[in-house]
Amino acid sequence: MRPSDRWWLVCVALILILGACGGGDRPQRTATEHLAVDTMPGGWIAVANSARGLWDMAEAWQVVEDVRIGSVEGDGAEVFGRIRAVELDAAGRMYVFEELAQELRVFGPDGRHLRTIGRKGGGPGEFAFVTHIQFGPDDRLWVIDPENNRVSWIDSTGAFLGSEWVMGGMVLLPWPGGLDQDGYYYVPAFTQGGRMGLARFTPDLVSSDTLNTPRGPSVPDHAFEIRTDERLTRVPVPFTQPFRWRLAPTGTFWALFHHEYRLVELSLDGDTLRTATRDYQPVTVTEEDITTALEDLQFFVDRGGQIDLSRIPSEKPATRDLFFDDDGNVWVIPWTSPAEQNRVVDVFDGEGRYLGRVSLPFRLPERIYPVFKEGTMLAVAVDDDNVPYVVRARIDGR
Question: Do 351 and 333 meet the contact criterion of CB atoms below 8 Å apart?
Answer without folding.
Answer: no
